[in-house]
Amino acid sequence: MQPHEESPTQWRMLAKHLVGGAIAVAIGGALALGAGLGRGAVDAFAEHGLELFPSVARQREWEMCVDGVDPQAKAVACLARAQDEAESSADRATAYLNRGNAHMDLDDPSAAVNDYMRALELDQSHPSANARLAIALLALGDTEQAAVSLARATARAPESYLVLKVRGMLLFHEGRYADADAQFAWIVENLARLDAQMQTQRDRDIEANRPFTPFNATLLHPHTEASLRLWRSISLLAAGDARGAARQYRRAAQHWTHADEELLHWCARGAYQSANSEATRLLCSGAMEFVPNDLRSRIHRGMAALRGSDFPAAFADFDAVVQRAQAPLDLRAIDLGEAEWNEVEHLISHNSNLALALHGRGLARQRLNQIQAGEADIAQASLQYPEAAAYFRNAGLSLPSLAAELRGAQEDSEP
Questions:
Q1: pLDDT (tens digit, 9 = 90+) per residue, 111-148?
Q2: How many CB atoms lie within 10 A of CB 53?
Q3: Spatial separation of the C-alpha atoms in residues 68 and 208, rounded to whole Å
Q4: Is-contact 50 28, C-beta < 8 A?
Q5: What totals of helices (H) and strands (E) does the chain contain, helices first?
Q6: How many CA atoms lie within 13 A of 345 on its CB side?
Q7: I want to staple 64 with a disulfide (CB 3.0 to 4.6 A). Which of 18, 19, 68, 158 is the partner?
């Protein structure tokens, strides 16, 4: 279990699970065999019979809510436990918190905000709900409310790892890049001490039979340090220290082979959902710096510029992608019989990247009063990749054409 997972009172749940499961198996097996229904009935009971026992179904939902890998299934299971008024308020709050975590994994911070707020309504003293709420609010670009939530979390647990990390994230989103780097650097240097504190608190919670006790959580995990160093790399790059940023990124990549994917994901999520255009553009600039062959980060930086109404910058990013994506592919240089998957994916995504860049450039041109050129770009994009318009529309960037606005204004002015 990773540090962000929360669990209900484990010993109580484990005892109920063992007793309920034993009773269910015993009764079901006896019924099937006693009725003389044979092996088929026993197999059918093994597959479906446990669902007849609410205690077993409840335990399965808790297991999925706490330890589930599929975030969609996790969200469903957590909602079932959260809405069950037979559960304690503390455990229902935990279910809403874990549902919020699942929604963050599904890149739906708006839904996560609602879940975290429900958790706090049930239990204002929840140890991590305010910090999680701050993270979701930062993902939406609401820096002001994130600061309020972080202040509440800090008042309860000023030295917890989660609170300290969110403080660094807030500093970055506020534009205090050197301070953000210093915060993340301090956490990296003190991970062992912070982990020891977390383990001590966990032991106390287990002894007191309190909820919210993750048994296997640890901060001494390669992903934890890699994530902190990624934040350091972006903060240093924004502060103008390119060499320091590159050094931190290399360290992150050494700890975690998926560091580049994580950085690309931060950029994409910001482009789709964050109102903080400047922070998103900096995240995407980092992705462009450290993953230069992936055109998506430049497309997403252009989307962030559109959201921030910086139309010349948006045009420049989308146009750069168009120029690069229009370069012909040398198919003879690729042995399709032995091509690696990334080569195949590059071929598949080539036209979609070009179409997305054309559509974005068209939107920027419209806002720069280049109406005909913008409409031509959008039309060409639609021919190459029909889903291009939906890609921008789903991000809330389906800007109406300036020509349509002018026509509407003219119609309104007619007698």
A1: 999 999 999 999 988 878 999 999 999 999 999 999 99
A2: 17
A3: 25
A4: yes
A5: 21, 0
A6: 7
A7: 68
Long-range CB pairs of 175-181 (<8 Å, 24+ gap) are 175/278, 177/235, 177/236, 177/238, 177/239, 178/235, 178/239, 180/231, 180/235, 181/232, 181/235, 181/236, 181/239
Is 177's pLDDT higher than 50?
yes
Give the number of other Cβ atoms within 10 Å of residue 335's Cβ: 9
CA distance 53 to 299: 52
Concatenated DSSP letters of 292-307: TT-THHHHHHHHHHHH
The secondary element (H helix, E strand) that includes residue 198 is helix 191-207
pLDDT value for 131? 96
DSSP string, 59-72: HHHHHHHHH-S-HH
Angle at the Cα of 360 from the Cα atoms of 357 and 365, rounded to 5 degrees: 120
**Per-residue DSSP letter, 332:** G
10 Å Cβ neighbour count for 56?
A: 19
As a whole number of angstroms, the distance between CA 173 and CA 281 comes to 11
Distance (Å, rounded) from C-alpha 269 to C-alpha 120?
A: 25
Mean pLDDT of 170-183: 98
Find tokens 């990549």 and name the residue: 253
Closest by CA to 342, choosing from 263, 277, 260, 276, is 260
Give rounded-to-5 percent helix, strand, coil for the chain: 75, 0, 25
Who contacts 41 (Cβ-Cβ below 8 Å, separation ≥6)? 32, 35
Cβ partners under 8 Å of residue 349, min gap 6: none
CA–CA separation, 122 and 342 (whole Å)? 47
CA separation for the pair 302, 317 (Å, rounded): 5
DSSP state of 51: G
Q: Which amino acid is at 83?
A: Q
- Residues constituting the chain: 415
Spatial contact of 369 and 353, defined as CB atoms under 8 Å apart = no
Find the radius of gyration of the CA atoms of the chain. 26
Q: Which two tokens stand for residue 154?
A: 């800090």
Average pLDDT, the chain: 82
The separation between CA 28 and the C-alpha centre of its own chain, rounded to angstroms, equals: 42
- Which amino acid type is present at position 371? I
Helix (H, G, I), strand (E, B) or coil at 216: coil
Structure tokens at 161: 């790892």
Residue 386 neighbours by CB under 8 Å, 6+ apart: none
Name the nearest CA neighbour of 314 among 263, 376, 357, 372: 357
